[in-house]
Design a protein that fits this description.
Helix content is 66%, strand content 0%. The chain is an all-alpha fold and 137 residues long. The protein has one domain: Up-down Bundle (Chorismate Mutase Domain, subunit A).
């Protein structure tokens, strides 16, 4: 029904405010796209970190197996009078590591990693040779 405002008449009452549509209950609003992308990204980071942890565990086992071989080589070298440091062998190992590298590490990175592994193996060979030599003396 029309009131005075609709037909241009005067009234002491202000016009009634339009009523807002009733809110319907429903599912919670979706998170903002940026938040959802961030959550997925954080979950992926955590998954990859768990994978790295597993790989690190495997690396530790392999490095310790390699080190055990180096200790035995050190004992044998001492017994047969062979020098611990053999530069030709080191060069062959480093060249082989670079040649067999599928990436994404570059050749320089692979060389540096293997230089450290070889240095530590040589240190263990020396220690094993010294301990073996001390036991006999």
């Amino acid at each position: 029904m029309a009131d005075e405002h609709d037909i241009g008449g005067k009234s002491d009452r202000p016009p009634a405010a339009p009523s807002a549509p009733a809110k319907r209950p429903g599912p919670a609003p979706e998170p903002r796209p940026e938040a959802a992308v961030r959550q997925r990204g954080e979950a992926q980071v955590e998954d990859l970190r768990r994978r790295i942890d597993q790989i690190d565990d495997q690396l530790m086992k392999l490095l310790n197996s390699r080190s055990a071989c180096a200790v035995e080589i050190g004992r044998l070298k001492r017994q047969i009078g062979m020098p611990v440091y053999q530069p030709d062998r080191d060069k062959w190992l480093l060249d082989r590591a670079e040649r067999n590298n599928p990436g994404p590490l570059d050749s320089g990175a692979v060389r540096r990693v293997f230089e450290r592994v070889i240095d530590e193996s040589r240190r263990l060979e020396r220690l094993a040779g010294e301990v073996e030599g001390t036991k006999r003396d």
